[in-house]
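for the recovery benchmark. tokens below, seq after
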């Protein structure tokens, strides 16, 4: 497999925006529309994607090690099909609606100021992760490990304490409603 190191890719540097399947190390991808492309079998090691559209890309056997996504549109992605080997991703100001992290090991993952509507975190390990200012409307948490995870500034989450591991997870008094809506009670102000 071809190895590409320390290169910056922009929408201007590539007329087609077509990704070559290769091993990318310490590369940056800026303002590129990759939507609906295949990243299958590609490897990204310590790379950054900024202001890219990655919606509906094929991630089958894609290798993501310490990859950062900033200000990206990433709708409908199946991270659950990525290689598990050294899988590590972090997100800032990204839109990840309808994506799946089913059974992914994502300890200490950062989801900062992200939109995560209808994202599937079923059976994932999100220990010590941070969801600061992220919208989790209709996100699915089932048999998910959320120990020491920070939800103190998260929005619109709904977490059933009986079917998830939440030991020492961090919540704010202001957002406790997301822990109670599974109970047969009525909350009023």
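predicted aa per position
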């Amino acid at each position: 497999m071809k190895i590409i190191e320390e290169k910056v890719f922009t929408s201007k540097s590539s007329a087609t925006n077509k990704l070559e399947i290769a091993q990318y190390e310490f590369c940056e991808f800026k303002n590129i529309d990759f939507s609906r492309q295949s990243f299958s079998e590609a490897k990204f090691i310590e790379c950054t994607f900024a202001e890219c559209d990655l919606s509906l890309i094929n991630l089958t056997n894609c290798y993501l090690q310490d990859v950062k996504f900033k200000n990206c549109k990433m709708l409908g992605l199946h991270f659950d099909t990525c290689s598990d080997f050294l899988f590590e991703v972090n997100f800032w100001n990204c839109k990840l609606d309808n994506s799946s992290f089913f059974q992914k090991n994502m300890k200490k993952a950062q989801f900062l100021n992200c939109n995560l509507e209808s994202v599937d975190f079923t059976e994932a390990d999100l220990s010590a992760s941070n969801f600061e200012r992220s919208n989790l409307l209709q996100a699915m948490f089932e048999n998910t490990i959320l120990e020491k995870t920070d939800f103190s500034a998260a929005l619109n989450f709904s977490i059933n304490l009986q079917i998830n591991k939440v030991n020492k997870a961090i919540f704010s008094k202001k957002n406790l409603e997301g822990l109670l809506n599974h109970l047969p009670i009525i909350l009023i102000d």
